[in-house]
Amino acid sequence: MSATSGLAAERPAPQLVRGLGLFDATTIIVGSVIGSGIFVAPSIMAAYVQTPGLLLGLWVVGGVLTLFGALAYAELAAAMPHAGGQYVFLGRAFGRLWGFLYGWTFLVAINTGFIAAVAVAFAKYLGVFLPAIGEGTVLFDVGRPFTSAQAVALAVIILLTWLNVTGLRAGAAVQNVFTIAKVAAVVALLVLALALGKGDAANFSPLVGAALGPDGVKLGLFAALAVAMSKALFAYDAWNSVTFAAEEMHEPERNLVRSLMLGSVAVTVVYCSAVVAYLYMVPIGEMAAVKDNRIAAETAQRMLGAPGAAFVAVAIMVSTFGCVNGLVLAGARVVYAMARDGVFFPAAAAVHPVYRTPARALVLQGIVAALLTLTGTYSDLLTLSAFSSLLFNVSTVVGLFVLRRCEPDMPRPYRAWGYPFLPIIYVVVSLFFLVFILIGDPRNSGLGLVLTILGLPVYAFWRGRAASVRGLPTH
């Protein structure tokens, strides 16, 4: 008998309520995806690529990849509409070890890397009002500089972890406000940029070319494109977040598919529109030099002066704070659910006796996010988390092929449109970026690989311990 089935026999599993419709699921995707990346990443990317069409093209490619990935995930989610999403798919396709490695990497690199990066982005935009806060302000140096931006990010992580442990109840309503704020900020930038006409259409020239920025010249074309793309992929990530709530959806076999497609397209439109507004107002040669990469605030400054920059900064701070809160809340629930289901350490399934929250999972997640915050800059964290996430996204799409072959009779309410060509394109293009991200930024992408590999001895230890306690086989 497996650990999971033995656990299920000991106590009845709690039942989730199917309360999410198509609109709810789509807004979950949009709200989860649009965080800090679009407000900072284009400036970082401009240090690698200096052709306007190439910069915009990377965002279009990121959106197309996201849509192709969503089409593949939709088949898996419709066939297995269970809480847990990706770790369920990987476990079914490749076995318990792969499910564990995803959950492990989700804890030590993917979700915690996102939390750390978005918390640093909050600090960057706080610097609009408190200029001493930023990645250029070093508080002390102990082998690596510790900046005021990192200090603020740590405070945000600690605060939101504590609030979630104690059971903050404003959750859904507050998250809706945060989602509206972040989308409104992007729409306002685009509309005002075009309406006021203070930009220059010549900023989009040349649309075609391969001019590289100062950081890109050091790497070469392919590596520069890949590292720049890692920043965009970070911004697109979390598009599959709705699959974690599959058991709570009405008609998941239909609404999961639709929400994944609608959400992916909506985010792509929002992101590409924002990049158009940035390029229209700020020549690409000046983008990389924007202080603390606050490209959205710089765009508003050029349109409306200091009041415009302040308004946008407030909207972005609200959105990034809400994004961190959502990542903290949702991420801890994934770790908690895995432990409860018997595929992670049991201690992580402990519920606080007073607050009724997964306190240990939240604290563990907060500690890891805090440690990652200390490892590097916002740009470093983007590459780390985006590389790790893309690695498992590719594995999941490959799992679609495995399940089609090994379980041809599995009920599939939806079959991936464009199969096998679109999933193959997703895998091939993603592998290209994975290889060249590793070449272009070996330190941060390599750290992601190391953290994943560390899951192997952890898994072996956990399985050995479970076997000794329950008489299970260790393989």
Under CATH, the topology can be stated as Amino acid/polyamine transporter I
Summed up, the helix count is: 19
> What is the general shape?
globular
Determine the fraction of residues in helical runs and give it as a percent range: over 70%
**DSSP E strands, number:** 2
Summarize the helix and strand pattern as letters.
Answer: HHHHHHEEHHHHHHHHHHHHH
So what's the CATH class?
Answer: Mainly Alpha
CATH superfamily: Amino acid/polyamine transporter I
Number of domains: 1
Give the overall pLDDT as a whole number.
Answer: 83
If classified by CATH, what would the architecture be? Answer: Up-down Bundle
| Structural class label | mainly alpha
Q: Tell me the strand percentage band.
A: under 5%
Structure description:
The protein is mainly alpha-helical and 475 residues long. The protein has a single domain (27-467), classed as Up-down Bundle (Amino acid/polyamine transporter I), CATH 1.20.1740. Helices cover 70% and strands 1% of the residues. It has helices at residues 3-10, 22-33, 37-45, 52-79, 86-94, 96-126, 148-165, 171-196, 214-219, 221-236, 252-281, 284-287, 295-304, 306-340, 359-373, 378-406, 421-440, 442-453, 455-470; strands at residues 138-141, 145-147. A two-stranded antiparallel ribbon has the order 1-2. Helix 6 (96-126) crosses helix 15 and helix 7 packs antiparallel against helix 15 (359-373). The longest helix has 35 residues, at 306-340. It is globular and about 65 Å long. The model is unreliable at 1-17 and 168-172 (pLDDT under 50).
